[in-house]
Amino acid sequence: MEKKYVKLQTSIPGPRSKELLEQRNKYVPRGISNNCHSFVKKAQGALVEDVDGNTYIDFAGAIGTLNVGHSHPRVVRALQEQASQFIHTGFNVMMYESYIQLAERLCKLAPGNYEKQAAFFNSGAEAVENAVKIARKYTKRQGIVSFTRGFHGRTLMTMTMTSKVKPYKYGFGPFAPEVYKAPYPYVYRRPEGMSEQQYSAMIIEQFEQFLLAEVAPETIAAVVMEPVQGEGGFIVPDIAFVQRVREICSQHGILFIADEIQTGFARTGKYFAIDHFGVVPDLITISKSMGAGVPISGVIGRADVMDSADVGEIGGTYSGSPLGCRAALTVLDIIESENLNDRAVKIGDRVIEKMKLLAERFESIGDVRGLGAMCAMEIVKGKHDKTPDKVAVNKIVKEANERGLLLLSAGLYSNVIRILMPLTITDDQLEEGLQILEESIEAVLVTDPSVSVGR
């Protein structure tokens, strides 16, 4: 296929990007990672142009924040209009209508036939922090349960809840108390010879044992679960596990919090991924694609739970900013008018189909998985031993970037290639991106002698 959208005028990174990279290394700490070493000039839809005139197809979506694409014209107009009226008053100083409109729409969209309320913040980590505060206030309990391989943020509490030690936690302790990690299913890495059904039953039993061996359920305020683990490697749990955890929470008065920060806003083919599992959470945390790139996050939940915090106990200076609220309202309009939930399913079907074909070609693609347009493949030394191959993934991501495809890795072992392209991507752009992905994999797994993989 001839490249129609990717235009490479220079090597990657180009001369101007290299100049800026020198300044970045001098003035910005190395602790902030950079996946691609080029600098953006402009972006539209699923295409990104750098300062050297190179055009990329975006399969990263700013780590899942751009379901409606870069600089969607309707979002741009909404932000321009808002900025011309007022930029910020502080909702706790002088309120604005867009905050109320957004809260109402999200409460109506969220699962559950009960009265709901919503509060808005700045980032995904803040949303999780505040969900924890609200849960503790309501239940008058302290314990918080998250799951192995889960990711919930980089603040003290959310870093504690996050499972991956390096690079997110190493050297940053001590951590917050009364946070516990429960087992979460990972079908691909189940014990050899065990069926998926047997494995599901085992994980459920382990969770029940966890409440006997690690922490008493009477002390737990909330269980926080990603319906599909994001940073953990796009791990999709089976329905029985999610439903059983919900049952146990209800049985013991524990709040069930769905962390939808990466899975929400049409990414999996529904507004909220938890809807795939037939489960109604007590609280939902949201962010990322909520604002189309404008910082905003939120907590939606049962009105009696949300209202448990007293006046002034939650909030913040920029929480639920006017720009963020207007962007989020426009995102909801776009999802509905452009049928992005349906589009996510179609994109996901095509990506999974392509990944399965690649898995037939390459022995090192051990697993292909996903839900809607949240798709991934796991790279291993060989299909039989399943040894994670982080080195190969790093090379594939770098190769893709140099060929004009923005790509991300994930997983506890950093050996998963994840796909988070804007849902507004065209069919032609999607196919060209998948072609570059295949070429990048081939370049590393077939022609790179430094990568030792089973073939």
From TrEMBL:
Entry cofactors: pyridoxal 5'-phosphate
Catalytically driven reaction(s): 4-aminobutanoate + 2-oxoglutarate = succinate semialdehyde + L-glutamate; (S)-3-amino-2-methylpropanoate + 2-oxoglutarate = 2-methyl-3-oxopropanoate + L-glutamate
A GO molecular-function annotation: 4-aminobutyrate:2-oxoglutarate transaminase activity
Alphabetized UniProt keyword annotations: Aminotransferase, Pyridoxal phosphate, Transferase
Gene3D superfamilies xref list: Aspartate Aminotransferase, domain 1, Type I PLP-dependent aspartate aminotransferase-like (Major domain)
Pfam families per record: Aminotran_3
Recorded metabolic or biological pathway in which this protein acts: Amino-acid degradation; 4-aminobutanoate degradation
InterPro entries for the chain: 4NH2But_aminotransferase_bac, Aminotrans_3, Aminotrans_3_PPA_site, Class-III_PLP-dep_AT, PyrdxlP-dep_Trfase, PyrdxlP-dep_Trfase_major, PyrdxlP-dep_Trfase_small
EC number: 2.6.1.19, 2.6.1.22
Family: Belongs to the class-III pyridoxal-phosphate-dependent aminotransferase family.
Protein name, entry field: (S)-3-amino-2-methylpropionate transaminase
Organism name: Neobacillus pocheonensis
Gene: gabT
